[in-house]
Write a structure and sequence with these properties.
mainly alpha, 11 helices, globular
């Protein structure tokens, strides 16, 4: 895209919503950490392990493996009419490898370093999943602030010519081409990105929770195949967009949101059956209200949960007493 092809500038509304989305994501990330730390006082230790696991898996193991596979596919010489088919096959193979490495890596890290059979709580599991998703969230925020939001704000306030002063004609045209996608975005795009980021965090926590049931020996390791299926399906909409089957980003995000909700419901049913103490604790915290969980003094939150547990136990004993 050249300057002549740009028909409308970046609007104030778009740049404002972009900034609000960034602030909202930061706020949610902070509040999620506060929720885990307060609801499970000793359960936030897994956050750093999750961050480290993401870094090692994504930037070292997965990058090396996928680069080798990509090199292998690029070395295959085929007719031009088969080039598209080969590219599609490569995309699927890369996603399968990424899925397998991520799930096995999460299981290994959680089993070896993140779970103590005698003392770990569900808070450790949530913190581990939160930390794993947090790295990508922070990376997105930094990239968006530097590469998109600051540019969008400067263009919406001062115009595209603001960037022309210190550039040659060739550099300016190259710069415009590199940011041309910003001119196609509307405020709704950034609202959907915020929703997609929240869905991704929730999905990763659900995935880690499923894996934790294997680590706790509530399920055998063959269940990792089911976990891989969920992870693979979550990224399929984006692959379909790459293939041209899905044309609009909105449908990609909508499908990811549907998969996220389905995975959370699936995980919740597993927890109710295999670790009911975890779902009971979460229900007790939920009944106290989100404000209580986030902002009330810790002593009061602890007393609220304990009182709820005592009442529930008393009702259970009363119902089980023979007449």
């Amino acid at each position: 895209m050249t300057t002549e092809q740009i028909t409308a500038p970046i609007s104030y509304a778009t740049s404002t919503v972009m900034g609000l989305s960034i602030v909202a994501i930061i706020l949610v990330l902070v509040l999620t950490y506060v929720y885990i730390r307060r609801s499970y006082p000793q359960g936030n230790a897994g956050t750093f392990l999750g961050l480290t696991t993401y870094f090692l898996l994504t930037y070292i193991v997965i990058n090396i493996v996928l680069s080798l596979v990509d090199f292998g596919f690029n070395s295959i010489h085929s007719d031009e009419k088969f080039a598209t088919a080969l590219a599609h096959i490569e995309t699927i193979v890369l996603l399968i490898l990424q899925t397998a490495i991520t799930i096995f890596g999460l299981e290994f890290s959680l089993r070896k370093f993140g779970y103590n059979p005698g003392g770990s709580t569900f808070g450790n599991i949530m913190a581990f999943g939160y930390g794993f998703a947090l790295f990508e969230g922070i990376q997105w925020i930094i990239n968006t602030v530097i590469n998109e939001w600051l540019i969008a704000v400067s263009i919406s306030h001062f115009g595209l010519e603001f960037w022309k002063e210190d550039m040659t004609a060739e550099e300016y045209e190259s710069f415009v081409d590199s940011i041309s996608y910003l001119f196609d975005y509307t405020p709704f795009h950034y609202i959907w990105i915020f929703i997609e980021r929240m869905a991704h965090i929730s999905f990763i926590i659900a995935i880690v929770t499923m894996i934790s049931l294997i680590v706790k020996k509530k399920l055998n390791k063959t269940f990792l195949g089911t976990v891989m299926g969920w992870y693979f399906v979550f990224y399929i909409p984006n692959v379909l967009k790459t293939f041209g089957v899905i044309k609009y980003e909105f449908f990609v995000m909508l499908l990811e949101l549907i998969v996220t909700v389905a995975s959370i419901l699936f995980t919740w049913q597993l927890m109710k059956r295999l670790t009911p103490e975890d779902t009971d604790r979460l229900n007790e915290i939920r009944k106290g209200g989100m404000y209580e969980a986030l902002f009330s003094p810790r002593g009061r939150l602890r007393k609220t949960v304990q009182k709820s547990s005592i009442t529930k136990a008393a009702n259970s004993n009363s119902n089980s007493t023979p007449e």
